[in-house]
Amino acid sequence: MSRDSRDATDPRDATGPRDATGSWDEDGPPHPLALRRTGRSEQEPDRLPEVRELEALGWEPAPEELAWVFLPYVWPPADRTWIPDRSTHWAVDTRLDGHGHVTGVEATPLADAELHDLDRETEELLDALGLPHRPPGRLWLLRPVGPYPAVGAVLDHLRSVAEERGIAFRPSPELLALTRAELATLTGSGPP
Predict the structure, then answer these.
(1) 158, 174 in Cβ contact below 8 A?
(2) DSSP class of residue 156?
(3) Is the distance from CB of 184 to CB of 190 less than 8 angstroms?
(4) What is the full DSSP assignment across 24-90?
């Protein structure tokens, strides 16, 4: 998709100006497509209808790897958006017999306290990087930047540059600084 053929509901105006230091769009509204749906869904995050609609428009869910915990914060505002997380996160209990055969499976929704425990590691990593915590209840979506056709290709580029510079692929101030600089270069808002 070309940069000029963005979807008509592009929230570019809602994301504000490019911010070199980053932001979680704390006061920004969700993508307009998300406003058509409300209430809890039993779907997992990547199965929500609004995620699938946005994927058809060139958006991709932000990676869940902990090394990229800061990525939506530093991603160019015009190429990131969020939707309310209406999904259900499931705990799956699988019972096996003595031969390793599945004899039963039970799925139950995680309680709010358990969801907060899942967020604790993310919050600790953000604290260590000196970044504010993510606003709760959001699913982040990104669009590729620069000459890359997919977010995964952008991330491969960032990993490659980190490896060339001897930066470990883990959440660190060094990976954060490299990511900020490379994204600025790819979007033309920083030095080449």
Answers:
(1) no
(2) H
(3) yes
(4) --TTPPPPGGGGG--S--SS-GGG-HHHHHHHHTT-EEPP--GGGTTHHHHS-GGGEEEEE-----E
Token pair 């609004």: residue? 50
The single-letter DSSP state of residue 146 is T
For the beta carbon of residue 82, count every other beta carbon within 10 angstroms.
23
The residue to which tokens 């932001």 are assigned: 23
Place of tokens 């070309």: 2
On whether the CB atoms of residues 66 and 174 are closer than 8 A, the answer is: no
Phi, psi of 58 (to 5 degrees): 100, 0
State the Cα–Cα distance between residues 19 and 57, nearest whole angstrom: 24
Per-residue pLDDT of the chain (192 residues; tens, 9 = 90+): 433 334 433 333 333 333 346 899 888 888 877 766 665 555 666 777 888 899 999 999 999 899 999 999 999 999 999 988 877 665 677 888 888 888 888 776 667 766 666 678 889 999 999 999 999 888 899 999 999 999 999 999 999 999 999 999 999 999 999 999 999 999 987 655
Question: Distance from CA of residue 179 to its chain's centroid?
Answer: 14
